[in-house]
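Quarterly update from the structural biology core.
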Amino acid sequence: MPVILVVYAIAAGAWLHHWTSGVAAVIVALLLWRRHPRARFSMYILCSATAARAVIVGDWLLLAAAVAAVVAMQTRGAASMWPRLRARATHVDSDRMARP
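Predicted structure, tokenized:
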């Protein structure tokens, strides 16, 4: 997945002239490569923004690629490599209010 994002970043910057999306793809690729806890969430945000832009401009191939990336992140292999976010246990020094 990180390699695919780097290829997308190169294509977005060179041919599509969407350099902001290319920079975001490189950052998400680095997060995935380092297995950061929020890498999976970042990937979903990038794919959602890419899909929204694809719908607005009518680029159906880009929309299909974004949807395929989200589907690929749902596989068992991706879930084991980049686990889903879990809610943290609340502590006494938490900034959340206690439930009534």
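The longest helix spans residues 39-57.
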